[in-house]
Design goal:
It is built from ten helices and three strands, in the order H-H-E-H-H-E-H-H-H-H-H-E-H. The chain is mainly alpha-helical and 213 residues long. It has two domains: 30 residues, no CATH class; 143 residues, no CATH class. The longest helix is centred in the last third of the chain and has 17 residues. It is extended and about 75 Å long.
């Protein structure tokens, strides 16, 4: 026995499918590009739905704006650590991107790639053994760059870029968007959330310097 009544599904009100608006129809689906193996064929074979539709819309808008209007790219850490940085560098070289706006995570991943040739630690393992975010060089050097920026009156983007360009040895400067932006004269800004990035827990972190930049 139960204290609850069984739902009477016979009372459901249904509607004819012909009256229901549909968001997907055959015209929107992907289609095999056939023998043509060009990128253009692949591009046009993508479905006109969700992310594929969005990326084509973004590409069209950027293409229309390039050379006529500003194109500001705002990005977080995943854009850098999944390998898109070199493509952004090429777009800057071609004059398409006119401003880069990074969050703190993006700046850290880019700085580590440029300076040390690697980034993106194993978060789960680092949390388990207490080493997550504890890289000595990353915290020490990026906080030194922030202190330099505070003294010279520059923002975080310029501070990190100047530090990297003055560093005597870089592991992979050719993949860095910070360095690429500097080489092409593209302004780059870093919009960090104070206290949210791994370098903010480092003993060399200076809240006043971070706030000033």
């Amino acid at each position: 026995m139960t204290d609850y009544r069984e739902a009477d599904l016979s009372r459901l009100k249904t509607v004819p499918i012909a009256q229901r608006p549909n968001r997907v129809d055959p015209s929107l689906l992907a289609h095999p590009p056939g023998a043509d193996r060009s990128f253009a064929a692949f591009w046009h074979a993508l479905p006109d739905l969700l992310a594929a539709k969005d990326i084509r819309d973004v590409a069209r808008r950027v293409a229309r704006a390039a050379g006529r209007h500003g194109v500001v790219v705002m990005l977080g850490g995943h854009v850098i650590k999944v390998g898109v940085g070199p493509l952004l560098r090429q777009l800057m070289r071609r004059g398409v991107i006119t401003h880069l706006a990074l969050n703190g995570s993006a700046a850290i991943h880019d700085f580590e790639l440029a300076a040390y040739g690697g980034t993106s630690e194993d978060v789960a393992a680092g949390l388990a053994d207490g080493t997550f975010g504890m890289a000595e060089e990353t915290g020490r050097e990026m906080n030194a760059a922030i202190a330099d920026g505070a003294r010279s009156g520059t923002g975080l983007g310029q501070a990190f870029t100047d530090y990297l360009r003055d560093r005597p040895l870089l592991a992979a400067p050719d993949v860095s968007v910070l360095i690429g932006a500097s080489e092409q004269g593209v302004p780059v800004t870093v919009h960090a959330t104070v206290g949210a990035d791994i370098i903010h827990q480092h003993p060399t972190a200076d809240g006043a310097a971070l706030g000033a930049t």
